[in-house]
Amino acid sequence: MPTTVADFRRLALSLPGAEESSHMGSPDFRVNGRIFATLASQKQGYGNLKLTPEQQQEFVREAPEIFVPIHGGWGRMGMTHIVLAKADKDVLAGALRAAWQLRRQKSTKPATKKPKKSAKRK
Questions:
Q1: pTM for the whole structure
Q2: For the chain, domain boundaries
Q3: 14-41: pLDDT as tens digits
């Protein structure tokens, strides 16, 4: 059964810590303040997912009729359309969980600091 924008929203918000916000006038979904999915392309029948380029390749390889890289630079960075009319709820839930997990992991990693250069002594 095809999914809808309402399914996308409900499933995104069912993930622990997920919140709905807005980015450039479109609904987005965040965990720890970081976007993992948007509905910026809902009028075209898509939900959008923030994946790694490697995850995107895997999703597109497994289901090219459901997952489409977003055109241009955003797509090369992993932003991926999910065709809502072709995705069932299990596929949509799994894809949202992958995007959520990626952003949740990134937001919990400690910031890396560059080591200080030691002062040279004469």
A1: 0.84
A2: 5-107
A3: 999 999 999 788 999 999 999 999 999 9
